[in-house]
Amino acid sequence: MNSWQAIVNMIKAEGIDYIFGIGDSGLQLYAEKIDGIRNVNLRYEGSAPFMAMAYARLSGRPGVCTASKGPGLANLIPGVLEAYTGCSPLVIICAAASQKTSGMGDFQESDQIAMMKPVTKWSARIPYTERIPWFVRRAFSIATNGQPGPVFLELPYDVSGKTRWELNDIGTPQYLPSKKVRTGADPALIKEAAKLLIKAKRPVVVSGNGTILSGAADEFKRFIELLGIPFLTTPGGRGILPETHPLALGVCGFYRTKVGKEVYADADLILTVGTRNEGYSTHQWRDFPEGAKFIQIDIEPFEIGRNWLPDVGIVGDARLVLRQLAEGIRDEVEPGKDFHMLPRVQAILSAKEAFQKEVEAECLVEETPLPAKRVVFEMSRIFGKNTILVSENGSQDAWSYCYPYFTVQDDSECVPVAEQTCMGMGVVGAIAAKLTRPEKNVVCVTGDGAFQMYMKELPTAAQYQAGCTWLVLNNSAFGWVKHHQVTAAGWDTSSFQVQPDFVKWAEACQCYGQRVEKASDIRPALEAALEANQKGIPAVIDVAVGLDMSHFKRAE
Fold it and tell me: In the list 68, 430, 530, 546, which could disulfide-bond 390, CB 3.0-4.6 Å?
């Protein structure tokens, strides 16, 4: 059996459904021969890591992607960097030039390990055929366990030939899949944290990306409801619970809105779970409430005290630690007590209801050009429950992070960009999201700048009948660049003088397309997009909007 065939069988044994690439690698070539693994052949190698990230986020398993050696692999690097900073578990397996001619200038020979090492948890060459199972198992284990992240393996040409494998009873190579290892917290630290929580009068929890990667939604819900603790999320932690939950306050940091900002600022204790507390999630570290206690929970010891110094720093898996904390405070909670009836919760519910009405009145006014927040608000109501929101980097789409302009409802999930905010992740991630969760509505809110970088993948979406919607908030510019130029210099050089017709492009790619310039057309266009999606047809809704940075001004 060819080594590539053997590797694909091992990937299948790890429970992986898809391999992302442009179809030119040994991994994808031999995947075509094996049932249960589906290739997704893209138009550009750089799309593959982004799609693998979305798959990993929604499946709970590592995303697998590949490329040809040399320049093909180099095109993966921006996406792998995004995965590295976003703690997204990827396994990247690519070919390499033969070891026998190493250093002699063979075709597309390059130091691939050196290229990948700075943006991966582990990068390695498989030196011998008989070591393949060890390296593959190790790659999946490292990608998944501890703080997740991308891992890279290269298979030199002289290791990829046919060899004799020891087979199991179903005729595939003997292989023992990797296992997820979870670590609990130090019981003494759990006691310390429980004492602080019980003593606190106004605690607030911030749920980060790690809470979702841990699959800790049930434990998180039980924990916050025991004491009636309101919560915010980072962009990566969004979707841990619906934002219709009584204790939900939306996103923190730069994306915080009125009620969340007020409740957070008034807190006497902050507990963060699975977040680095990096710049965007903390409003550049300006938001910590004066005098508040701080409990930090993270699976990675390096992250404890990296920014804010905690009173109690707990290392452990979010699911297990939250379970331990709930047990630690359970005896202090009055039996049968309903958190809804707590005066603080009642006040928050009243404030949220008032703010919801304020946002609705703000969004439904008639303005030209259309405000981005109006479009996002309408989209949230049309797509509703059972929706995956795939975020993209940009200025206009920032409104989609802001609750309740967009509200994560029941049975909904979010696919965020990571700290690097590499443009295009959301545009192509939407395709993978629909393939991974075909039963859900999928919408990507994107600016026209990011959309143009990766609209080359619209034919991919049509080819695989991935019925997702791109809501393109079109201000004919890179919004952030224009804003900074106008603010700093008083003029801009970045507005697009020539802009593609996105509707014609969509139609040329066998997708549905519609242009929206009037408020009355927003709802019918979104409804038409959803109808097309239900038939497996991707949709592009191109909305003419202005440059609106008011949320960020208000966030100050």
Answer: 430
Amino acid sitting at position 311: D
**Cβ–Cβ < 8 Å for 479, 447:** yes
Specify if 227 maps to a domain.
Answer: yes
Model confidence at 196, pLDDT cuts 50, 70, 90, reads: very high
Instruction: Note whether 90 and 83 are within 8 A (CB).
Output: yes
Specify if 79 maps to a domain. yes
CA triplet 55, 56, 60: central angle to 5 degrees? 120
Q: How far apart are CA 406 and CA 81, in angstroms?
A: 28
How far is it, in rounded angstroms, from Cα 68 to Cα 10? 20
Q: Do 416 and 387 share a structural domain?
A: yes
- pLDDT attached to residue 275: 95
Which CATH number fits the domain that encloses residue 81? Answer: 3.40.50.970
Which has more confidence, 420 or 8? Answer: 8
Q: Which amino acid is at 118?
A: P
Residue 68 sits in which domain range?
3-159
Phi/psi for 20 (5° steps) reads -105, 135
The DSSP code sequence of 32-47 is TTSTT-EEEE-S-TTH
pLDDT at 537 over 90: yes
User: Both tokens of residue 456?
Assistant: 């080359």
CA distance 113 to 496: 38
Cβ atoms < 10 Å from Cβ of 411 = 13
Q: What 8-state DSSP symbol labels residue 149? A: -
- Mean pLDDT taken over the chain: 92
| Backbone conformation region of residue 138, classed left if phi is above 0, alpha if psi is from -120 to 50, else beta | alpha
Evaluate whether residue 181 is within a structural domain: no
Q: How many domains does the chain have?
A: 3
CATH number of the domain to which 194 belongs? 3.40.50.1220
Cα–Cα dist 544/546, whole Å? 7
Kindly state whether residues 195 and 125 are assigned to the same domain. no
Residue 339 φ then ψ, to 5°: -65, -25
- With a cut of 90, say whether residue 337 has pLDDT above it: no
pLDDT band at residue 551 under the 50/70/90 scheme: low
Q: Which residue in this structure is represented by tokens 């578990």?
A: 89
Give the integer Cα–Cα distance in Å for 222 and 324: 11
Count the neighbouring beta carbons within 10 Å of the beta carbon of residue 100.
Answer: 10
Based on the fold, state whether residues 407 and 461 are members of the same structural domain. yes
| Terminal-to-terminal C-alpha distance of the chain | 61
The residues near 70 (Cβ < 8 Å, ≥ 6 apart) are 108, 109, 110, 112
Domain assignment present for residue 180? The answer is no
Tokens (6 digits) for 434 = 């629909």
Same domain for 226 and 89 = no
In the block, tokens 């790619």 appear at 509
The last residue of one of the domains, among 316, 350, 384, is 350
Mean pLDDT for 19-42 is 92
